[in-house]
Amino acid sequence: MPARRRASFRIGVTGLGERQEIAPGVFINTAYRGCTPGFVVTDEGLILIDTPLIPKQAKDWRKQIEAELQGLPLLYVFNTDHHRGHALGNQYFLPTTVIAHERAFKEMSGYTENFKERVYNSFKREPDIQEQLTEIEIILPDVTFTDSARLQYGGREVKLIYVGGHTPATSIAWLPKEKIAFVGDILWVDQHPYMAQADSLEWIEALRRIRSLGAEMLVPGHGPVCSPDDTEKVEEYIRYKRQRVRDYYRSGKTKNEAKSGLVGEMLELFPVPLDRKAKIESQIKSGINRVYREIQREEELASAELGNGAFPPPISAPVLVREQPADANLVPSPETLPAPPISKSEQNGGREVEQEAKL
Fold first, then answer.
1. Is 319 exposed, middle or buried (0-12, 13-18, 19+ CB in 10 A)?
2. Which residue, 129, 263, 268, 288, shows the most beta carbons closer than 10 Å to its own?
3. What is the pLDDT of residue 310?
4. Does domain 20-229+321-341 correspond to CATH entry 3.60.15.10?
5. What is the arithmetic mean of pLDDT over 95-124?
6. Local structure of residue 24 (DSSP, 8 states)
7. Are 30 and 224 in contact (CB under 8 A)?
8. DSSP track, 34-53
9. Which of 159, 81, 104 is nearest to 326 (CA)?
10. How many helical (H) and strand (E) elements, i.e. helices and strands, does the chain have?
11. Phi, psi (deg, nearest 5) at residue 307
């Protein structure tokens, strides 16, 4: 079993913190809860990456941005995925154009009043935060992309690349000149990755794809700037979970038995604060549940191919290869954006939004 690792930063912080300039005109803040947001300054305006979940922190972040931008407009907010920690703060950065993967639009379109209530109730032990969440407004992406897109403003180039893995919508922002990648929740530093919506093989591919970029700095979805080498730890964690779940499956254990047997084992792989132990145990169970279904499908398919119902020999996670599509140049011709497979356009408060049909 891999050695237990030590956390290098506080988890679940609720402070405000100060913006940190990690490269000329590239800023982040690691003190917010839910995500590590950033922004890129161009001569024509700002490009934001993710928005804080807690309203007080989102408003503070906007103040810090306005202190730095000196009258420049907010060009884009890019959400690395649809989860609340990355996208729920969009409402505090209007007017701007929100951009995300097309699947993020689909997921966020399903955020009903029940979703808002669940967010509110999740902070019942923190009434000071709960009081801030009484007027949640879901701001959907105005622009979506499928595989990749490119933003070019004021001498800056920001590539948006779909990688999947963590969720069906997870995407990264890559600054090739600065050699910085904002990688969202595809990378967790000294923490158990959240895998309830994961595709574990796709996640491994995404980590390897990130390492191939040639980045010098990675900004994870949570925590401080790190290096591409830190992706190895997450890959090790995922591969280990896959192998242990496969061991349980091949020994005839059910999904619930796998969860019961593996939670304690997985818990040791990263440090867990006592006040978050129950939540992280639940998070680990949801990840095991997801991986078990993957392993079950893989084993059933492999057994069918053998034709005798026997288990195939153990294999390591394969390296998946996705063809690299041509980037969509959003600037100056946003009309060339690739449309979602099933969509219709509708007017929403004066803004044109790509509305996907419900599955």
1. exposed
2. 288
3. 63
4. yes
5. 96
6. T
7. yes
8. S---EEEE-SS-EEEE---S
9. 159
10. 9, 15
11. 80, 5
How do residues 146-164 score in pLDDT, each as one tens digit?
999 999 998 899 999 999 9
173, 288, 344 from 271: Cα distances, Å: 29, 18, 46
- Is the four-CA dihedral 68, 69, 71, 74 of positive or negative sign? negative
**What per-residue confidence (pLDDT) applies to 312?**
62
What angle do the packed helices 200-211 and 277-306 form, to 10 degrees? 100
What ranges do the domains of the chain cover?
20-229+321-341, 236-306
Interhelix angle 277-306/255-267, rounded to 10 degrees, is 130
Residue 177: which region, alpha, beta or left (left: phi > 0; alpha: psi -120 to 50)? alpha
CA neighbours closer than 13 Å in the CB half-sphere of residue 234: 32
H/E segment holding residue 2: none
d(CA 104, CA 204): 21
Give the chain's end-to-end CA distance (angstroms, integer). 41
List, as own/partner pairs, every contact residues 321-324 make where C-beta atoms lie below 8 angstroms and the sequence separation is at least 24, other chains included.
321/205, 322/205, 322/209, 324/148
pTM score, two decimals? 0.82
